Amino acid sequence: MGYKEQGKWWVSPENYDQEVTRQFGFPEKIEILDTTLRDGEQQAGIIFTKEDKLKIAKALAEAGVHRIEAGTPAASKEDAEAVKAIVDAKLGSKIFVFVRNMIKDIELAKSLGVDGVIAEIIGSEHLLEFGKRWTFEKAVEACIEATRAAHDMGLYVTFFPADSSRASDDFLFRMVDAVAEKGHIDSLALVDTFGCFSPEGAANRVRKLKERYDFPIEAHFHSDFDMGVATTIAALKEGASVAHVTVNGIGERAGSAPLESVVLALEALYGVKTGIRTEKIKGLSDLVAELSNFPVWPIKPVTGSRIFGWETGLPSSLWLNCKDTDPLIMLPYHWELTGQHEPKIYLGKKSGKDNLNLWLKEAGLEIPEELKPDLLQAVKELSIKLKRDLNMEDFKNLVSEFMAQRG
Q: How far out from the chain centre does Cα 348 lie?
């Protein structure tokens, strides 16, 4: 793989310069854990029914997602039923659930047939003392008992100390040391609950954890500073082996690291194979947007409905001139890579003559060449009046009125 992959992407050659790539410490295999059905649903206002969850889980599995966090069974009877339905569907992905470090949560998870649990505890000294109002000793005791029980039941245990990005090294190490010694940890999630890691900070914390522990490190990062993708990749670059993501980046407050951006960046910008079927991404995004009742921003990276197209005259002309030679001359990646549509040429305030000529052709209309500058000006004026680009009905009506005025 390289910076230019025929029919896939064309990114900067600097990304693949040896001075850059020799700094990478990506693990041999990266797994994607999607938590749309748990952390995604925790976004205020999103409710997924049992049927919704099963549809989304099937789509995630079809896209090749390695692990699906199917929900929090203890939260509701319907959530537990949804998890059971997903397990029974035998989708091929590993199924995890979110649990408190409590024996009854572990037993419920086991009864549903899941592969593993993500065992949460408050993982920073300030939030444990002032938010949870527990002592360190009480928290550790609960974690030891629950993780050991989960292991004894044959479940994979991901230890999940929430807000561990803001914990001091000493506090976090003491907690993980105690649980690893007397309880059980198969993997440790580094959790940036409030999205406050910088990429460099995330990398540094992962580096410390990798030096201290033998078990895998997972990255669960939020996007409060719009850095979820950058921090997740920074963690993976230092050896974290599992990325926690959600479709469309939904999740508490500003959301989580979006699956689509993390995967595409790894593949195209870093040359890291994820195993995700990227051509399924747009359909997956549309499904989650529909079932969550949270529309995707039209210019959202990767999945937005209007990211492939131009209204402005110069880029529109550049695209029309080169698209048949090689569309990647004007694109960072091919639209088919993510299941998107071919780029469109829009018509509005910023458009030029090539936009106009294309729209006339698509509308099946012809006007004298000498009238086109005036028609283009009329297009611009209407676009300004409407405060948007034109649709085909607008355009046809405008041409009809324009020609009528000229006899």
A: 32
